[in-house]
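Recap from last week: sequence in, structure out.
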Amino acid sequence: MSPAMPHRPLFLVPFFVSAAVACAADPDPGSEAYFSAFIRPILESSCTHCHGNSEDKGDLRLHTLEAALKGTDGKPALVPGKPEDSPLYTTTILAPDHDDIMPPSKEPALVKEQTERLRAWIAAGAKWPAGLELGQEPRMQFVRDIQPILEQNCVSCHKPDKSEGDLDMTTLEKSLAGGESGPGLVRYDTEKSLIFTRTNLPADDDDLMPPTKKGGPLSKEQIQKLQLWVKQGAPWPDGLVLTQKALQVDRPPNPDNAEFVARIHEAITQKSSEKSPEDMKPYTGTISKTGKEYKMVVIPGGEFTMGSPDSEKDRKPDEGPQVKVKIDPFWMGAYEITWDQYLNFMLTPDSRYKDGAKKTAPPADSPLVDTVSSPTQPYTDMTFGMGQDGFPAISMTEQAASKFCEWLSAQTGHFYRLPTEAEWEYAARAGTSTAYFFGDDASKLGEYAWFYENSDGKTQPVGQKKPNPWGLYDITGNVTEWTLDQYDEKYYGSLNGTAENPFNRPRTIYPRVARGGSWDDDAKDLRIATRRASGEAWKQQDPQLPKSIWYHTNAQFLGFRIVRPLKVPSAQEMHYYWNIGTLNEQK
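Predicted structure tokens:
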């Protein structure tokens, strides 16, 4: 929903509950059951993405009753018993092109049935279960999400001239009326809607819709969309009649596969000439796609103690027990990857599938880089107004960061990847063993890092503070940085003796490890040993289903820097590192 709320109600209608809203089986509008069945799905799909616990556009929050009653600018969003004084309702019935309509005009408006539910609930006192905090769920838009599923999979058997089971699904009214086996659609009730229950059956069930011989079962993603749509009230544009459409054939496999990576591997092995630590020198590379430069510094091999001692101030349990670690030499980016370097990877003119493959395959003789998967178009400004030129790129998933490494490798002939957690800490410490690489005195942190006290509430251009002893700028602060590892709070305890190049190989998408603290963190969280675990909340406001593999929109503190190991890995290992962001053995 948009942040704005009108100062007075507009386009008000007399209070009534239509036959489409109220029926004998419905809970009373003044009951908590009514809120749970009808109001909560509307608010969580249409309102809290912008006005939830982690978002407050226009300083308005709607995730709790208290927040809705408080409203914004001294005006409540919700006035129990008075829908005409409640912008939570009145803004939903504005003209479609009105600046203050909620949800905003770039999204479909709520349908009349939904707005009447809101009105009935508010008029009856706006009962809200005590202590309940609303979350968020992807909003299903009929034309974008549901219409293609129905027209390609359902209408062929359920239309006026061929209504199998006496069920016609070409209009909302006929879907609600149903057929011999019951209603095709019952708003807000998935278990009574054939459109969900019959599509969610096993593949060998005789009642499966569509049947196996006609393309069934639907994909898990399609079934989830139908389930959410019904739960959210099954909004269906007025007067829209569905027509049968041909079932779309499966897309071709992504060419960015193991065989393709083998070609990149061959190019890298032919170009990489450094064979020993003595061959390693700092260098500045150029991204051919953009002409932008990036600087790599040498991180010499050696041993260090990973983790923090029990005596370290503000130490957390997952920072130990301390363990001896041996690390092979590598190069590391002197700076965090910036928007200047990242933007041309993220924004491309090509239409892409959700996994980043181009929908129009590049010619066979194209440069290798043209085949690398890249992000789909973002659904919001990913800089979040913090700054672009010279500022660190933010809010990408581990998959996006890893694919950038592949994209860069395909252009330069050097193998790049994210650092392991051990490599990151080794490089950040730069031979020191104190809480910070400059000592234990946090009062000096402002000379070396951007954090909560000096960042002005946002990222800052890279390289403005002093580097660590090995020439790494912003290694703590500015943005927290991705590593490759699975997060395990007890991982250090599993390492025995002197661990050589330890790497906790991921098994699930979450949690993974990020390191270094950010512009939004306190000084204690910029200590070298501090670990951060990723989580689904990092992409909570993502409205897509399934959620994007490319963006962590709620993690505006998150970025990355690259490493290049001296030893070039095998093609199989390269493929593993560059696709680690989608690895999930427990699906």
